[in-house]
Amino acid sequence: MGTSLTPEFWERFAVLLVAAMGVTVILTVVFDGLAVRLLRRRAHRPPVHAPYRPQDADHRPSVPC
How far apart are CA 49 and CA 53, in angstroms? Predict the structure, then answer.
């Protein structure tokens, strides 16, 4: 028992193909926008540095006798 691909099948196939492509494009734009926003937000933050500590905090300079 063989089946033939009717014009109705091709019409539905075309509609579903276009719909899938549209959804793919829309999701790509949304996720790209979110990624760019996240990268920009990270780039504008000031870098976190450790507080300044002198190198010789526990060492006292030697005094000649």
Answer: 12
